[in-house]
Amino acid sequence: MIIKSNLNDYSVTIESSFEFVTELIGLENAYFVIDKNLYDLYEKRLFSNIAHEKLTIVEALEANKTIETVLQICEAMTIIPAKRNARLVSFGGGIIQDITGFAANILYRGIHWTYIPTTLLAACDSCIGGKTSLNYKHYKNLLGTFFPPEDIRICSDFFKSLTERDFQSGLGEVVKFNIMYGERGLSRIEHDLDLLLNRDENTLNTYLETSLAFKKPFIEEDEFDKNVRIHLNYAHTFGHAFETASNYAIPHGTAVAMGMIVANRVSLQRGILDEELVLRSEQALKRIIHVDFTGINLDIDTIIDAIRKDKKQTSSDLTAVLLYDDMKLGIFKDLKPKFGVKIFQY
Ligand SMILES: NC(=O)c1ccc[n+]([C@@H]2O[C@H](COP(=O)([O-])OP(=O)(O)OC[C@H]3O[C@@H](n4cnc5c(N)ncnc54)[C@H](O)[C@@H]3O)[C@@H](O)[C@H]2O)c1
Ligand SMILES: [Zn+2]
């Protein structure tokens, strides 16, 4: 798949085995940044031939998604004599993507970047679109640029080692794209959810492709997020609020799954979405939301307060993307969400 970009068109390849990793390790002028958990799990099998001085291992913690980590990588990469022809090759989920995208963007005003998303969330969604974000002090994703990788390689073998928590978070985004497809997408998910939950490789590959194919026209038409791309923010207004209110105990894709339940209930309350579709979506979503809500404060005032602070809120009315009619997407104002944790649980 080729993604058109104002910066540089880029490619996404779905790999059927880990063979491509050997090819990447042999590349001239390459420097590697690898997620620590991933490195520990796959060191012997995949990474033992990477020269020590050409490797930085980063712990995937929000606390490490900072300009300091980016600067350390830039400094370490001065070992590569090629300068602007240097290539950063990074393996990991969204945290590693955000850090290495930023570094590849600013080092020598932009170097080559190959990215291997190793979480389902990064593979089915964030690896395309070109956003990079860093946290600063207590501000999540305050700093950012647009800089897509030029080469993305996805191998679903990596998802076998994800924890259930991280895997189901990725499924949140997969289910989101299908609910956004409309009734047909929802039926497909209802049919295939068991296979997805069992990490069936063929099913995962099919859904990876359809998820990326759904996102592609939005980011190609509006790469810099000024108009139609905003529709991809469906479920995220509430999702981001759940992430912050839980102090990131609820992972991104799970928070988005919860955000879909709330967004669709708001649509139902306004009489713009069919009740059957709302209930069927909820049935599917509840199967991928497994959160221990003890100690997490999701009361309505906390959530509304978190929504008001979201950087995408542009007016004092609460605004969000909602589904209407047969799952069309639109921007709606003056929301009055109602919920308690019970709506996310069986
Ligand atoms: N740039 C974007 O467009 C964009 C979009 C969405 C989210 N994000 C960011 O992405 C981050 C979340 O990303 P994420 O959900 O991919 O999680 P992550 O990068 O935090 O990784 C989750 C966990 O999975 C582990 N891991 C990674 N690959 C593994 C594998 N194959 N096997 C076992 N463990 C593995 C990591 O070590 C970590 O513990 C957030 O910081 C969010 O802000 C960015
Ligand atoms: Zn998301």
Automatic annotation (TrEMBL):
Naturally occurring in which organism (per UniProt): Desulfosporosinus metallidurans
Keywords: Cobalt, Lyase, Metal-binding, NAD
InterPro entries, alphabetized: Dehydroquinate_synthase, DHQ_synth_fam, DHQS/DOIS_N, DHQS_C, Put_AroB
Domain of life: Bacteria
The UniProt record lists the keyword NAD: yes
Molecular functions per Gene Ontology: 3-dehydroquinate synthase activity; metal ion binding
NCBIfam families named among the record's database cross-references: P_lya_rel_AroB
Upper lineage: Bacteria, Bacillati, Bacillota, Clostridia, Eubacteriales
3-dehydroquinate synthase N-terminal domain ranges (all copies): 57-168
Keyword Hydrolase: no
Entry's Gene Ontology BP terms: aromatic amino acid family biosynthetic process
Cofactor: NAD(+); Co(2+)
Residues of the 3-dehydroquinate synthase C-terminal domain: 170-312
Gene3D superfamilies linked to this entry: 3.40.50.1970, Dehydroquinate synthase-like - alpha domain (1.20.1090.10)
UniProt name for this protein: 3-dehydroquinate synthase
Alphabetical list of Pfam families matching this protein: DHQ_synthase (PF01761), DHQS_C (PF24621)
